[in-house]
Amino acid sequence: MKKPRSKYSTSNLVPMFRKAATLRNEMLASDFTDNGGAIHSAERILDILGQRLNYPNLSHINKLRHDPNAEFSSTALEAYQKGEKVLIEHVSPVRDFTRNAIAKLDDGATNKQFLDFVRKKYRLVLLTPEETKHLNKINRSKMTPDRLGQAGIGIVPAHRKSCPLQLQATAPSLRRRYRS
Asked: Least enclosed by CB within 10 Å: which of 77, 89, 93, 172?
């Protein structure tokens, strides 16, 4: 019998997010704060849910840079090809994204409407440390329609589709994966 890839799926993550959202609202009503931890379970569950929906083949977020559909800034792609450090960035800042997701449920969203919202708003990209620092200086906490563009960061198409030969020549670990 094949072992399931993960113990987390939309069938259990959505009800758990609803519970975490309710608990967060109860904690806020008792004068506890998000910074104190009221929102943390909801943030974590929503992050896992977003990964399952939009990156179903990703076994762990830290493997994003190896995913054939990963989005890079042009500078981060060059850095990655040289073996330099790239960082994962949530395009929608996690705290604000979570607050907006909870607000959707509070407004009566169905599971389908909630999942559509998560699919639309959950996005990960790879940036250089310098780009991440610049982005966070411009806007590290609010969801906006073009947060990356406002910081002057352009995203290139998924890296294997846009330049597989370059990656084959410069990234030995990817060369093995690309052939399979």
From this structure: 172
